[in-house]
């Protein structure tokens, strides 16, 4: 029974590891990225919005929606919470099954080391997936600007409808 539970947890971890949007840079290339960061915004009264952070000012956020492929303007007062991912996460999901299976060489000590290896690799994997992220409680809207495609606001000669 414990083995089935462990296998189910391992499979769930591997299956649930999501791929980051392709426009997010590798962590080494953060400073040369021409796109805005990926954001998930939970709104108070409307549907949640996911997409590229385009611009922010004192009263609103502009996001290029990954669903509709058009820019959506959201008043800051409408935002309940957000999560921002500014670089592709590091995935260590392969370590869960590899290191757990490696404990087979431990002999009888396997009974203690297998659960310990499983716990540690799950913690490391979860931390890697959550790296390069900010939440509303971690960053102010003013500081969030630096992760937008247009951190100083949308230029006057650029129409929001033309942003792709």
Task: Briefly say what this structure is.
This protein has 164 residues and is an alpha+beta fold. It contains four helices and six strands, in the order αβββββααβα.
Q: How would you characterize the overall build of this protein?
A:
The chain is an alpha+beta fold and 164 residues long. The protein has a domain at 32-88 and 135-156: SH3 type barrels. It has 4 helices and 6 strands; from the N terminus they run H-E-E-E-E-E-H-H-E-H. It has helices spanning 2-16, 95-102, 110-129, 141-144; strands spanning 38-43, 49-56, 60-65, 71-75, 79-85, 133-135. Strands 4-3-2-1-5-6 form a 6-stranded antiparallel sheet. The N and C termini lie far apart (51 Å). The mean pLDDT is 80.
* CATH class group of the domain at 32-88 and 135-156: Mainly Beta
CATH architecture of the domain at 32-88 and 135-156: Roll
Mean pLDDT: 80
How helical, in percent, are the residues?
25-40%
